[in-house]
Amino acid sequence: QVAICYQNMCANFGYAKQYEKSLEYYRTSYDIFLSFLGPDHPNMGGVYLGMGSMYNELGNYLEAKKYILKSVEILRKTYGDDYPYRKEIEEGLVELEEKMAKQKEK
């Protein structure tokens, strides 16, 4: 339950555009979930997805992609190819790839 409280704080800081602070809370949430649930638990997928989103907001697209893909890997293991929020995650990855391509052009 403590980890879930941390995840809620992550979301609040993200909404307030305090992305670095959000990442701090995601890291704490990550540590708690990892120690109690293990690396492949679906909640870990949510933590990875959130961290990827914050890195995306910070413009660190390569790191964002790494975390989002880790999330997809966990969600697929748990739910199969029809994992929760699949469409939204895939659309987000396409947008992320476009940002990365634009960043390379500069």
Write a brief caption for the model.
The protein contains five helices and no strands.
Structure write-up:
Helix 2 packs antiparallel against helix 3 (42-57), helix 3 runs antiparallel to helix 4 and helix 4 (61-79) runs antiparallel to helix 5 (86-105). The chain contains 5 helices and no strands. The chain is globular. The model has no long low-confidence stretch (mean pLDDT 93). It is mainly α. The N and C termini lie far apart (44 Å). It has helices at 2-15, 19-37, 42-57, 61-79, 86-105.
Portion in strands: under 5%
The amount of helix comes to over 70%
The main pleated sheet reads as:
none
Gross geometry? globular
Q: Distance between the terminal alpha carbons, to the nearest Å? A: 44 Å
Q: How confident overall, as mean pLDDT?
A: 93
Number of strands: 0
Oligomeric category:
single chain
> Could you tell me the radius of gyration in angstroms?
14 Å
Low-confidence stretches: none
Going by helix content, strand content and strand pairing, the class is: mainly alpha
Count of DSSP-assigned helices: 5
Element string (H = helix, E = strand) = HHHHH
Structural descriptors:
106 residues; 83% helix; mainly alpha; 0% strand
Topology overview:
Blueprint: H1 2-15, H2 19-37, H3 42-57, H4 61-79, H5 86-105
Helix pairs in contact: 1-2, 2-3, 3-4, 4-5
